[in-house]
Each structure stands twice: as C-alpha cells, then as structure tokens.
Specification:
By secondary structure, the chain is mostly helical. The chain has helices at 2-19, 34-57, 61-86, 98-130, 134-162. Pfam families: DUF420.
Length: 167
C-alpha cells in the first residue's frame, strides 16, 4: 500500500511538472504521432474494460483477469506515450468555437480530473485482486470501474475532437 500511495501522488505531480516545462526536448519528429497512438490506446483500454466487465458478469474469472491486466498494462503504455509527447511537443490548442469549445473543455477537464482520482483506485483494485483479497477487490472495483471507463472513453472523445488541430 505504501507504493500505491506513493505512486498515486508522484505520478500526478510529475505529470503536472512536466506539462509546465517550457523548453521541450527534441526526441524526433516521430513523437508527433504519439497523440494518435494514445487515441488507439484509450480505445483499446475502453474495449478491454467493457469486455472484462462482461466476462466477470459471466463468471469467467481467468479471462476477466487477463482482460483487466491488459487494460492495466495499456494504462502504463498510455502514461509513457503521454509523457513522451508532452516533454517533446508543445500542447495543441483546440480551435473549435461556440458550443463545441465548451463541450471539448468539459470533456477534457473532467477526463484529466478523474484520471487523477482513478489512479489510486485502479492501483488498489489491481493489488487486491493479485493478493487474493476478493471482497476488497469487488468493493473497490465497483467504484474504480465506472470512473476508469469514463476516463478511457473521454480520452477517445477528446482525442477525436482535437485531432484536426494537430500540426
């Protein structure tokens, strides 16, 4: 639990500090493709989350574990890609106007805010499963799952909305 608490604080702090860096590192032009990879990662995560949910409802525990482990690993890959993009590229500005602008920022802000909330929930849920604390796992999953799914889906929506504005 100490590691979970530490990661739950350190990751958001590092990401916030990283976003504040004005001088970006030149990691090459390939990093401009990372937002598209992130969109795919969020899509696959959403699919695995729904699939994992359906599997557990059918009592297919081993397949559920595999699906959720896949979603968990995609979360780690997302973080690596997100950091890689933002330490090497300026943030892309949304160019939409009117209602679409308000909708985009609602989606983005709720996505970012809940991503910080869901991190410790997912880490705990995953930990409880792997340490065979199933009652605690089920209780935490009921909270973590809908937030994680929302974060994954809104990540896809935000990506699709800003995609036309990438250079």
């Amino acid at each position: 639990m100490v590691w979970i608490n530490l990661l739950s604080v350190v990751i958001p702090v590092v990401v916030a500090l990283m976003l504040g860096i004005r001088q970006k590192f030149d990691l090459g032009a390939w990093t401009r493709t990372l937002p598209h990879a992130i969109g795919v990662i969020n899509t696959l995560t959403s699919i695995l989350l729904i699939y994992g949910f359906l599997l557990i409802k059918q009592g297919k525990i081993e397949q559920h574990k595999k699906a959720m482990t896949g979603a968990f690993l995609l979360g780690g890959l997302f973080l690596v890609c997100y950091v890689g993009y933002h330490i090497s590229n300026q943030s892309t500005k949304f160019g939409g106007e009117g209602f679409m602008r308000y909708l985009y920022f609602f989606v983005l802000i709720s996505h970012i805010g809940l991503s910080f909330v869901v991190l410790p929930l997912v880490l705990r849920t995953y930990y409880f499963s792997w340490t065979n604390q199933m009652a605690r796992h089920r209780k935490m999953a009921k909270i973590a799952f809908p937030i994680w799914l929302y974060v994954s889906i809104t990540g896809v929506i935000a990506y699709l909305m800003i995609r036309p504005y990438y250079a």
